[in-house]
Design a protein that fits this description.
This protein is an alpha+beta fold. The chain contains 3 helices and 4 strands. Belongs to the FliN/MopA/SpaO family.
């Protein structure tokens, strides 16, 4: 951590280096606090949310839509291998990749999208 400490042995934020290097630094959350926090969220565990994994989009006229039949190919606005968008309650929260899990398709999240709340 050379270069981060001052002559008093503290970081630019005023945290003593000994605290950063200890097993339980000051300001970190211990196991009891983590469990308490998870327990505090228990009332919302059963709240349903809508999760969508969007492979791509296409704009069609109604006449084109009516011509679709089994086996028809619909061109999407994404390229092969491009990340898919993951929405929770219509809010973009992540990007990911399609994976095969046994006989089912799944999604691996590769990027979490952080948005500013207003």
């Amino acid at each position: 951590m050379a270069g981060l400490e001052d002559e008093n042995g503290t970081t630019a934020q005023g945290v003593p280096l000994d605290d950063l290097q200890s097993d339980n630094p000051r300001g970190s959350v211990d196991d009891d606090q983590e469990q308490r926090s998870a327990h505090d969220l228990e009332p919302v565990f059963d709240v349903p949310v809508r999760v969508q994994a969007v492979l791509g989009r296409a704009n069609l006229e109604v006449s084109q839509l009516l011509k679709l039949a089994p086996g028809a190919v619909l061109e999407l606005d994404r390229k092969i291998g491009e990340a898919i968008d993951i929405y929770v309650n219509n809010r973009l929260v992540a990007r990911g990749e399609v994976v095969l899990v046994e006989d089912h398709l799944g999604v691996t999240m590769t990027e979490i999208i952080k948005t500013e709340r207003t």
